[in-house]
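User: Predict the structure for this protein chain, please.
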Amino acid sequence: METGASPGLSADKPLQVLVAEDDPVARRLVEATLQRKGVSVTSVEDGLAAWDTIRKTHHDVLISDYQMPGLDGFGLTRRIRAAHFRKYTYIILLTVMGGKSNHLEAIAAGADDFLTKPLDPDVLYTRLHVAQRILGLQHHVKQLEGLLHICASCKKIRDENENWTQLESYISQHVGIMFSHGMCPPCAARWEAEAGLV
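Assistant: Here is the predicted structure, written as structure tokens:
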């Protein structure tokens, strides 16, 4: 039952979620819970199918059962982390087994979070909110660490949506720094000379 107390997911960039669950009833429950909140969901029946899917198409979040035939959730998590995909996938493991050792093993395998079955829809939704926030922060850090595409002529910057914006606007939006304009002494001297003022 939805309480409405859960934080809202950003509509700017909807999460792409992959669900890997061998139990068809549990898989449908997770899928329906996410779809009710407007999350884009792809579902597969086991770890091997999830691995095939994630190699072909990036998903922001993987929600995987821990125990599955063929390739379990820990093995799937290890494969994803070992692959070093260009884009990060936030991994949530589902398990019926509680306990500190299982949680530590999930984190050691590369999982970001874990939930215990039976699944609480509000808790799942809250964890997705956290996932979206962390993925957003990672995206901003990568942008700041990476190279910015800048026009050699007009100095506009190409953003992640392939739009060209003024340098000042881009930095204000992504870093929160405001600008005031002036001229450095060499540019001021050159401008005065070109204008015939000296």
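Residues 1-8 have pLDDT under 50 and may be disordered.
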